[in-house]
Amino acid sequence: MPVFVDTNVLIYALDPRFPEKQGVAQDWLKHCWRERIGRVSVQVLNEFYVNLVRINGGNFGARARAEIRQLMAWHPCAIDGALVETAWGIADEASVSHWDALIIAAAIHQDCEILLSEDLQHGQVIEGVRVVNPFLDNHAPDSLTSIPKA
User: Which of 28, 92, 119, 134 gives the lowest tally of CB atoms within 10 Å of its CB?
Assistant: First the structure.
């Protein structure tokens, strides 16, 4: 089952300011790599880059680009007309921001059942995609089998 990883999870994996979240994020990313189930979008990669450089300073740009080059193996979903149309429908129906709707739309377009994010309501199901906040108790990667299908 593909898992869409939101920007905040990627950032926490590299951000030592929050060691508990860093460990959880790293565990999820290791799981996604090992199982080959990780998915992202071009939007997520751009947000990831901008925020890493903002948090760590301009000299972190090379490291951020190296991380993104690795994540390109997940075949990021591009923002195209079909994705935007899907996002508009989601924004209208689920009352989420356009940016969050683009994330959800990318997850849908990549056949993901799980969206890892702390930015949306945990447990919420939008168009068949279940939001999982990985930083809540009992939501480690090995709990995927116990997460009810959408």
Answer: 92
Residues 6+ away with beta carbon under 8 Å from 28: 3, 5, 9, 13, 116, 134, 140, 141
Q: Please give the CATH number for the structural domain made up of 3-146.
A: 3.40.50.1010
Rg of the chain over CA atoms, in angstroms?
Answer: 15
What's the CA gap between 133 and 114, in Å, rounded? 10
Sketch the domain layout of the chain as residue ranges.
3-146
pTM, two decimals, is 0.91
**Which 8-state DSSP code applies to residue 41?**
B
Strand arrangement, sheet containing 114-116: 38-39, 3-5, 114-116, 129-132, 125-126
Mind listing the pLDDT tens digit for each residue in 2-57? 999 999 999 999 988 999 999 999 999 999 999 999 999 999 999 999 999 998 88
Q: Do residues 106 and 75 make contact, with C-beta atoms less than 8 angstroms apart?
A: no
Tell me the C-alpha distance between 14 and 17, whole Å: 9
